[in-house]
Amino acid sequence: MIEKLQAHYGFTRTPFGRDLAPGMLHRHASHNEAVARISWCIAERSIGVVTGEVGAGKTVSVRTVLAGLDPSKHTVIYLPNPMIGVRGIHEEIVNAFGQHVAHLGSRLMVQASKALVAEREERGRTPVLVIDEAHLMAHEQLEAVRMLTNTNLDQDSPLACLLVGQPTLRRTMKLAVLAALEQRTALRYTMPGMSAAETTSYIAHHLKLSGRADPLFTEDAVGLIHTTSRGFPRAVNNLAIQALVAAFASGKSLVDEVAARSAVTEVIGD
After folding, report:
1. Using 50, 70 and 90 to split pLDDT, how confident is the model at 5?
2. Which residues lie below 8 Å from residue 86, measured CB to CB, with a gap of 6+?
3. pLDDT computed for residue 106 by the predictor
């Protein structure tokens, strides 16, 4: 099916995939701003909170920044699943530095903190702790993250920490029990969807990467995809590829509004 689809449209690769190198990504406004803010947060060794709806491009923006870091100056610790408890976070940090994990929870917390400080002060590398899906974190985990940054009489942090998650994360952090963490947070950015013009450019960019520089989607089709997806990249990807399949199944050389509506029904439902 994939081979037939590529042959039908003259693609050199399947468009709207997720396996793009950072240099091949579409540079729309929210992505650029997220990259700039995340880069600043890491440089300042601060706590940053990046939120957005599912498919807004949060992880892609973080990945872009991490790919550009100098490994001789930064050590990245990426936690894709926060459902590991407080101990799990400390264990991941200790494991990242190749140390034997302490059995007692209190000792493990100290061990993790000392490992972060040593990486910064002894080896000259800034630890960058990235926790994805951070909206799933319990209050105790969020407080544990704050404590990791709470060294040197509260004047300096040995690490940069990025909490990446859905919008509920920001609401959680405003709770009184997390006031200390909220006060230490230097970056708060919520990623919006792309504008209509950016969605048009986004689709054209991905088609060009696949070998088609000419218009393949009609304006009505792009408009419907933008409205339905609200400009969020992942939803645009899903709708665009299904619209291509619908047009191919109908023997069309262009993706028109009919094909786009078929895609909306397939992806979103009636």
Report:
1. confident
2. 105, 109, 140, 141, 144
3. 75
241: its two tokens = 């590829």
pTM recorded for the entire structure: 0.89
List alpha helices for the chain, DSSP H.
2-9, 29-43, 58-67, 85-96, 105-121, 139-148, 168-173, 179-184, 196-209, 219-229, 233-249, 257-267
State the Cα angle at 107 between 105 and 108, rounded to 5°.
60
Q: Rounded to whole angstroms, what are the CA distances from 76 to 57, 71, 221?
A: 20, 8, 41
Kindly report, residue by residue over 109-131, the tens digit of the pLDDT. 899 999 999 999 999 999 999 99
Residue 157 — very low, low, confident or very high, per pLDDT cuts 50/70/90? confident
Q: What three-state secondary structure class fits 55?
A: coil
Q: What is the largest CA-CA distance in the chain?
A: 69
